[in-house]
Every structure is written in structure tokens, then in C-alpha cells.
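hey so i finally got around to running the thing on that chain from the lab meeting. sorry it took forever, my laptop kept dying and i had to restart like 3 times. anyway pasting the input first so we r on the same page abt which one it is
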Amino acid sequence: MRLNKVFLLLFIILSVSQVFSQIKDHRYYVSSVIFEGNKTFSDRKLQKIIRQKKPFLFKYSEFNRRSLKLDAITLKNFYASEGFLTASVSEKFEVIGEERVNIFFEINEGDLSTLKSFTINGEEALSEKKIRKYLNLKIGAPFNQIKIRQNILKLQREYQKIGKLLVQINESYIPNEDIDLLLIIQEGPTVKIDEVIIDGLLNLDTSFVEREHVLKSGMIYDIELIELSQQRIFETGLFSMVNIYPVASEKGEEWSNVRIEIKEFNQREFLSDGGYYLIQSRSEGAEPVPGLGISGELRDRSLMGTAVKTGLKASIESPIRDVNRLLQDNIYGIELNLSQMWFFGLRIPTNIKFYYKHGAELTQADEVLDWMGADLTFEKKYSRYSTLRGGLRWINILTDETNSIENEQESGFRIFYRFRNTDNPLYPTQGSYFSIRPWLVGSFLGGTRDYYRVELDYRRYFSNRSKWVLAMRTKLGRMDRLTSQSDEIPPLELFYLGGSTSMRGWRDGLYSASGNITEGGVIKLLVNCELRIPLKGIIGVNLFADGGILAVDSSDFEDQWNEWFNGQGWDVGLELSIATPLGPVRISYAVPLTLPEEPHFSLGLMNAF
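ok and heres what got predicted. didnt touch it at all, straight out
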């Protein structure tokens, strides 16, 4: 009897848990969004602003009460930014059926307020003309209080560049149809730096910080120099935290001490890493191949008490060349890195790398190589968007087991410039990317080959309110021997196309206009266009078209160019995309236009570009 009661109690608990679980997991989706009272702006305009949207094709917005409240606030702020200062927005919803919800927004626009006049009081350090330029206000335009406050913050920063650390800027107006705006500026004294105080050093000498910051006693407090100093100290890689802020000085309000508060990294540590990689084969003329990788590194951030950072790293990379070649063609490597921020008294970030690798050559079927080399690299960052990198490379291929790959040594000088202002490195939705890579091999640098190579890469990303992304890329490449007496460029150094990061209708590095196994080319053109559509949660679908030309000389390029517009060198397809914290996983199905009977499946990690 007691046992029966126990089973009955367990049954009740499980039943109740199941009911609550179903209630918790029950979801509602937006069926329609209805705006009432909007006279100035269309439903379509307002729909683009809110988070919860009406259904579109197979995409449904999940209903959420918190998001509904936020959407009402968003609409009110939008109206305020357009000059409707007294606008109000209320929201409600009704449940239709078991999982559908209709949303209603009741809008009272109120009167439109415009800027009638604009007066400035208290300006001295900056001219009225410059202040008006920063605020960018137009008489007679709708009164946008949000934009005004944003521009006041920019103006405040301009004052902080010239030592006006204590500046206060306030706007005053009476909400009405015609706005008389008064800007009141209290500049305060011009503040100079008294002392620079460094806190937080435990094992490192103060010289590691002092040579990086650009602050000196007696100079005018400049917010840009504060930020530059913080950035330079971070770039040393010695500190996990850098915070620079003003503190009161005993000399009075016209002086301020600057405190640099830092926290050191552990000097010696073991770091491990793993995840998705874009793996570059020995041939840098081929596009990177997606794959998996794992690495471990012993790192010393201050070798023998100096600013030289060292790292001994071992890695295993497993390219995914095709769906039926998962976790094959592994590349094993070991490398020693030495890096520092200063080079012969100049602040030029410098890195020296010695490495040895063994593994598959991804542009050659079933070829295995051993190669070793050394790189000397210099880097200059002009801004958060642009980087210039250059240096010397020496490489020696050791394997002589096959006839298709010769032993060779190469010495080269290369430059890499990149400009990138995309919003997200893993999932870019807006912005652009540009890079150029000139490379000189041989000549006065020595080695067994003499040739040059240059590549251009341009990408552009567009998105809409539905988070659809249109991504486009164009790549151009050209290489040739330096003189007619120079040896032929080896197959390993030629350009190759094909694979999940270039032309998805062909296997990695195996595209050829003739249809035969490619031997590479000296002229490359690659065009990609993708429409990335999120469906539900982490699932998305990409529609794409890839086009390419791979030519052995100028005449061949001209012939292929004429056939290119007839469909040669093009593929179209779609791919399923699964978003993960490490980047997207893609399963592609592509059909070459001239070979529709030979479609190709491929597996990709990260976006194609």
C-alpha cells in the first residue's frame, strides 16, 4: 500500500512537471502588426523600426511581452527624433488561436516642433562657427532632441581635446511648435597634466609603460592622447587591463594628475586553442580551405626580463576538402615566435617566426610535403580599420619523394595592406573590406625562382531590417616571371580555384576551364555573390553564385573572358547555414552552369568570405 502511494506521488509530480514544461515551452508568434493614429509615417516605415514584425515568407517573429514594451518605446523615441516631442504610444495584443498574436500600437502624434532659433552663450575657446558646425542644426527643420544630445557629446569631446576637462554643456528650450534653443556652455579652466602615476606593476619595470604612453608633465590634458596611450600600452600584450583617468592635483583645478592603472598578465603560461580554421596550404595562390584545428602554446611574455615575447607552439590542422574526406589530409606544425613592439628604437611591431610543417599539399592530389621556413614581419596600424604589414620570408621544401614537386628554396619580400570596417568579423552584415598583397620572390633576395605576384580583394556587405545580408566579393590576381630567362613558376606557387571558399561547383583547387585536372594559372579572377537569409534560430539559407577565370597567359584569359559571359566558369546553388559560437557551418549544393549533370556537395566552416 505504501509502495502504491509512492508511485502515485511520483506520477503526480511527473504529470505536473510535464504540464508546466509544456506551458513554459509554449510559444506564440506574431500574426499581424496594426498601427493606429499614424498620419505622418506609413505602416511600412514604422514596421522597419520595431523588433517584432509581421510574417514574411517562412519567417515568423516570436511574440514577447518585453519586446512589445520596447517596441512602443522605440516608436515614441522615433517620433521624438522627428520633431514630435509630445507623441505618445500605447500597445496591446490579442491571442488568435493557439499560437498566433495580433499586435496593436495606438499612436498620438501630437504637434510637430521645428527649430525657430539657436543661441549660444559662454563660448570662448571654440568659435561659434565651429560649435554650430559640430551641432549641425538647421533653422526650420524638425527639432531632433536625440541628435542634439548626441552632437553635444561630440562637442564636449572637442573641448576635452584642448584641456577643457571640466566643461559643462546644457541645452534649454520650452517644448512648443516653434523651439527657441539656448545652448549654455561653462568651459571651466584649461587643465594641464601635473604627474603621471603608474599603479599595478608587480614584476615588470616601469619603463615598459613609460615608453608607451605619450603623456608628460606640463602638457595640456588631451582626451585623444589619453586614449592613444591606453591603446599603445594594451598593444604590448603584457597587460590584461589598462585604465587611464584624471585625479585631483594639489596644485588646484587648473592641474590634474593622470593615473595609469594596470594589471599584468601571467608572465609564463600554457595556452590551448581549438575550433574552426581557414587553413592555408603550402601554395598561397590557392584559396584557404576550411577545417578544424587544435594547438597548444608555451608563452613567455617577458623573455629574461625584456619586452620580447616568445611562444613555442604545436598545432594540428585538418582541412575539410570534401564531404567524403573529413578529418583527412592533416597538417602538423611546430613554430617558434619572437615578437616585440620596438625595433632599433622605433615603435614598429616586429615578429620573427621559425616553423616546420608536414602534411598534405591541398592543390595537389595525394601529395605530402615537408617544409620549413622563417618570416620577419613588421606591422603598422593606422587606425582600427587599416593595417599595413610587410616583411621577408625564406622557405625550403624538403620532400623529394614525388616527381610532380621539386625541391626548391624561395626568398621573398611581401607587403599586405588591409582596410576593414565590417561590423562583425564572424557574421558581417554591413561594411566593406579591401586588401592588396604584392609579393616579390627571388631577384636580389636569392632562391631558385624569380617572379612577382599581386592580389586584390574587395568585399561589400549590405543588410536590411529583416537581417537579410547581401554579400559580394571580387578578387583579382596576377603573377609572372621577372625576366624571360627566369625559370618557370613552380606549380605550388600558381593560382588555383575551386572549393567552399571560392567556386563551390568544384572541389578544392580543381577548377579548370578545359575540364581537365588543373595545373594552376598565372591570372585569376573570382566573383562571388551571396544572399544570406536567416530562417529560424541558428538556421539560415544562403543563395549564391560563383564565377571565376583561371588563365595560363593573357591570351588564355581573353578567350575565357569571352566564354565567361556564356556561362563558362560559373556555378549557382544554395547552402544550409548553422550558426555556432565559433562561426557558421555550411553545407553547400552547387551546380556548374556548363556541367549541370555534375553537381557538387561541399562542407564549409566559417563564411565563404
